[in-house]
Write a structure and sequence with these properties.
Number of helices: 17
Oligomer: single chain
Distance between the termini: 19 Å
Structural class: mainly alpha
Shape: globular
Radius of gyration: 24 Å
Number of strands: 0
Order of helices and strands: HHHHHHHHHHHHHHHHH
Strand content: under 5%
Length: 507
């Protein structure tokens, strides 16, 4: 238990480190490389990331398979066969990835001929080759990462991630300052991934004593892990499409500079989503255990409401705070030319905030074995997003891409509300009601107050933008805290649950 709590704490530390380093790097690279060079890198990275779809979640498969073996007290030989089988699958998938990368390489000219110059396309091809190499090395490292987890070494992966993120930030910051080319980022990423792979390999061999070879491949193990691999492939497909479709199409039909601008709100949105999954994941173990023990889904309403209120406080504060002081924040970090990123980020975050309020109910789907329903809904969301983005991109530009994503997310929200209410018999309105009755109105008032104070100070330079951000942000925090702790008697209990409920997150 101590090891798991340590791992959870380190995971949250990595989340914070990754957020800080990401904000610094995105701003720093835009300034050092310029909008065109950075936009080319973002476009190609989004394009190449579709190769990740072919990894079939080998890290998770490795962890699940070895955990099952250890649960049945299998012999060392059985453990080695399991590791060797998954490792063999990894090697086969790497070959497939390399073949797919060759096809994609020759597609770059046609895909970006309308928006890239001949020099841009040459640079894009060079970056693509390096990004592909990095993906392959990372793929091997990811497969090995599941082994320490299966042996309950929960601290290993977060420590590796923290060190990798910090090292990458320092190296990119130092080297790009002198050599201002996007290729440098890809080279550094390969170096970091290679170090991670070697450290992971050494840890598995020396500390866990496992041996893996293609000769130990076992077809029975392959048949066992195949269903999970397919499920993870579908999930990866959906996530990659949702994360990259906007930037890919903007790169194809508008310009690299537009991709650079759009990458800013997308990064802010990704940080918001990372934080948004934390509150309701803390309730996963209790909900699954209770429903598995015979409790009806509607009988856990108190837990749903508690998780929803926690999401309303955490995610709502970030979302509403960004509305209040997002403009000066973006000007401080990225510059005046990225002011549109504020509106785009708000458009993307709004439906996701509402989805997070009932995010705890996905744990019910896990307990009832209905998670595939959610996968199908996400698939429909992604396909609709692709079509709507193509329709809105030409007349409205990158704003149209954001609106398309937001509209599809609202459709997903309403469908899941209907499904929970009609099919699982959970009164979803009771989950939302406490949030809209007290917490969200307080946040709305605080947002208006913070935005009013912030807008009184013209953001003409870094100093005035910083003053606008600090005063507006302080006003938001003070007004919300005053209203929340004055009128909500359970406020302290809701906030306190963040510190008390340390259970393993669900995925």
């Amino acid at each position: 238990m101590k090891s798991r709590n340590k791992g959870i704490a380190l995971s949250y530390i990595h989340l914070i480190v990754n957020m800080i380093c990401g904000l610094f790097l995105s701003s720093y690279l835009i300034r050092c490389l310029g909008e065109t060079e950075y936009g080319i890198y973002q476009t190609v990275a989004s394009f190449a990331n579709y190769l990740v779809l072919l990894e079939f979640g080998t890290g998770t498969v490795m962890a699940q398979s070895l955990s099952a073996c250890r649960g049945t007290k299998s012999t060392k030989e059985k453990l080695n066969k399991t590791v060797s089988t998954v490792w063999t699958i990894t090697n086969v998938l790497v070959v497939i990835i390399l073949i797919a990368s060759v096809v994609m390489f020759f597609f770059i000219d046609r895909a970006y001929s309308k928006s890239f110059t001949a020099e841009n396309i040459k640079t894009a091809k060079e970056i693509f080759v390096l990004v592909t190499i990095n993906l392959v090395v990372s793929f091997y490292a990811q497969s090995l990462s599941g082994i320490p987890l299966s042996f309950e070494k929960y601290h290993f992966s977060p420590i590796i991630k923290i060190c990798s993120t910090a090292s990458r930030t320092v190296l990119i910051g130092a080297i790009v300052f002198k050599y201002r080319y996007a290729l440098v980022i890809a080279v550094i990423d390969i170096f970091i991934s290679l170090c991670t792979l070697l450290v992971s390999y050494g840890y598995v061999k020396k500390h866990l004593g496992l041996e893996f070879s293609i000769k130990n491949y076992d077809s029975k193990v392959f048949k066992t892990v195949l269903p999970l691999s397919v499920a993870l492939f579908l999930q990866s497909l959906i996530n990659q499409a949702n994360n990259n479709v906007d930037k890919m199409f903007i790169g194809m039909f508008i310009s690299p500079e537009a991709v650079t601008l759009y990458s800013v709100p997308m990064y802010i949105f990704s940080v918001f989503c990372s934080v948004g999954t934390v509150p309701y994941s803390m309730y996963s173990t209790q909900i699954v255990k209770a429903i598995s023990g015979g409790t009806s889904p509607d009988g856990l309403m108190d837990k749903y409401i508690s998780a929803s209120k926690l999401s309303a406080v955490v995610c709502g504060s970030i979302f509403c705070g960004f509305i209040a002081v997002g403009k000066p924040f973006i000007k401080i970090i990225y510059g005046d030319q990225f002011e549109d990123a504020w509106l785009i980020a708000i458009i993307l975050m709004l439906p996701s905030f509402l989805i997070f309020l009932m995010g705890v109910l996905t744990n019910v789907l896990d307990a009832l074995g209905k998670r595939m329903i959610y996968t199908f809904v996400l698939t429909g969301n992604t396909l609709s997003n692709i079509v709507l983005t193509l329709l809105l991109l030409k007349p409205f530009g990158y704003i149209g891409a954001a609106v398309a994503t937001s509209v599809c997310s609202f459709v997903q929200l309403f469908f899941m509300m209907w499904f929970y209410t009609k099919k699982i018999k959970i009164k979803v309105w009771r989950v939302f009601l406490p949030c809209f009755k007290k917490i969200i109105p307080f946040e709305a008032v605080a947002t208006l107050a913070g935005y009013f104070v912030s807008s009184l100070i013209p953001c003409n330079n870094i100093r005035s933008s910083l003053l606008s951000f600090v005063l507006g942000g302080s006003t938001y925090v003070a007004v919300f805290a005053l209203l929340y702790f004055t009128f909500d008697k359970e406020a302290k209990k809701t906030i306190g649950s963040v510190l008390k409920r340390q259970t393993k997150p669900s995925y």
